[in-house]
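Lecture notes, unit on protein representations.

Consider one protein chain, 102 amino acids long.
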Amino acid sequence: MATTTKALFVKLEVKPDKADDLEAFLNQGASMANDEPDTVAWFAVRFGPTTFAIFDAFPDDSGRDAHLNGPIAAALMENAPDLLAEDPSIDKLDVLADKLPG
């Protein structure tokens, strides 16, 4: 089982009329994350009507950097002007502990 030492928390504030579109985009992101060997965990969550987030975890900095320079991030930034009310807030995190399926 891969260990995780690095993570990302990306907060997304969607335009009110684009919430369904962002939800569909995030569902596609989940399948894209399956193609990234260093993306150990990937979650899309909804906090409320217009607030979403992505949390993902990686074994190390190089895995996180590969994800940030990969197809999911590129697609998000390409679609951001149409979907998002503001730029995504991207926080780089250190993972202190985890429990992942074995």
